[in-house]
Protein 1
Amino acid sequence: MTTTRQMASRLDQPRELRRTLLPRPHYDPESFGRLSERIARFLGTARFLVYMTVFVTVWIGWNLLVPSWLRWDPYPFIFLTLILSLQASYAAPLILLAQNRQDDRDRVQYEQDRSRNDRSIADTEYLTREIAGLRVAMSEVATRDFLRSELQQMIREMDAKKPVP
């Protein structure tokens, strides 16, 4: 007798469809990943730091310098703190998602580099064996310098054997 927990953990059978009250949102992970990379790339720029500095300065300046009836976030700036915390709580996971995607790309690039390097090593070893084989074969073949030296030796021997008139 199997329990429902054992049935759920079996990999050879499809899962039962679970009905939920609210439908699950569907999204394209690749598009979401690209968007998160664009946001993370922007968050890491000097332009973002300048924009945030201007935003915080204007916010604090407005809430310190304008009449009290126009202020929406008085001195402890609790609303500003809440906004910055919310921005940070979204920025951190987006940056992590972008880093994970970059790690995946780096891993693929590393594997491609490794296989290319393995092929290059195999090609180099093959060429080394071929050159060694050619050297062995060339040691049995007469070279141009060898032939010249032999011909010059024969000419000297013939000159030495010539009768003097």
Protein 2
Amino acid sequence: MAAETPVCDFGRKAEDFSLKGTDGKTYSLADVQGPSGTLVMFICNHCPYVKAVIGRIVEEVNALRAHGIGAVAIMSNDTDAYPDDGFDNMKRFAAEHGFTFPYLLDETQEVARAYGAVCTPDFFGFNADLCLQYRGRLDASRREPIPDAPRELFHAMVRIAQTGQGPTDQIPSMGCSIKWRNPA
């Protein structure tokens, strides 16, 4: 079922976490935080919305690193009901797409609930003080990539890195709903 993210709750503080990554390490928010901002993404392996843009996500994260933006991807779906999103498949997905950022399993779904994640992909862009400044989309792509689409996430995060403030006009991300173990 498709879902859309709510309007950005400007200034909301990032929630800490301690989650296992596909590389076997455990990560906290401090481990992924960038000096100029942090991008927390909720994604999964099976979602057609994520599959359509995963190459662009990896490119944008790599480009944002030069602007002092740290990034992390978190997978929060119920892996019993959606085995394609299981940990071994997460490892494979990260390797296939050349992830240069941690890909973490939120097995209890507590992190997704703390952030208020609703879909995959769901982007949370924080400034250097870990205050939320972006809750929009990657670009105009949905289930099909749109060549040369304006780089909405990238430009918002660069602005956040430079000024600490995100754009006031943001278009919500859309994707598959988070697959909750117990309905929220």
Protein 3
Amino acid sequence: MKLLTLNFLTCAIKTCKTNPASFPLHPRDAELEIQESDLNLPFLKNILPRLMWEEIRILAKELGLPDLPGSAPVPEDLVDSSSNAALDTPEVSQGDEREQEASQTARDLHRVLIETCIQEGKLVCGSCGHEYSVKEGVANFLLPGHLV
């Protein structure tokens, strides 16, 4: 389960739906694995506005990952400054964007969000304390009948 996935998960228990403490789910006893992949700069630029940045920073800290910047990066931060001249031309196409050089910020963000995976452990709700197990990189969100 990629760390990015935790940005979109909340507790499935009905009574937690309105409680802000049910997001994000906090990893406990997490066994991490790095699964290397090619950096996709357009994807990172498009996902930035959807990230709950403070929550991602908290999760990274809880997992013992390097500290992320205090404020969310903007798409311009993801491109190496020597490649920024290409961004100023209005005729830049999607193909040209893939050829731009990724900045260190983009590489770090890619490493944390995309390549860092939780292989084993638990995800714990901050509201009710319910634990969702993670086995072989897959979280189990099936609830017993009395909690549905």
Protein 4
Amino acid sequence: MRVYLAGPEVFLPDALEIAAAKKRICAAHGLEGVFPFDTPPQAPPAERPYWMRIYLGNEAHIRSCGGLIANLTPFRGPSADAGTVFELGFMRALGRPVMGYSNAAAAFLDRSRDFLGAEARPREDGGWEDAEAMGLEDFGLADNLMIDGGIAAAGGAFERTEAAAGRRWHDLQAFERCCARLAALVGKAG
């Protein structure tokens, strides 16, 4: 099965090395990893703006894959990368299996409170809110309930680990667990 490898690693200076490592792990589990930098199965029109060609290429990759594994490690804030979340939702809407992982083990509420600092304040009902009196989500989940819920509804798993300092984007233990679970899920369906 071809598996789309969604995540913000595309922004790393060593993105191609990370892609190669993920593809090796996929292959060890009988999967074929597809990274956003790979040549898309359908070339986007050259006259489109560069950013749109990236989008169309990634959409073509997603449509060509039977499943997706998303790196949902918090990116530039307490939550996952918005583009990665879009890709996960797109694959989920296609009715294909999705898995997610995060190299930050803390619950979404704890990360949100840490991110907001003094702007996070307790409510009288025992919950938490931000400076605009908007409640902070508190379900003990890894991220927003729509992310965790979409993965669970697809029969997938959201693997969490706490990466060692400086290894947040390079620790592939939780990713490998996702590969094993996806391979087992696909094996059951086949």
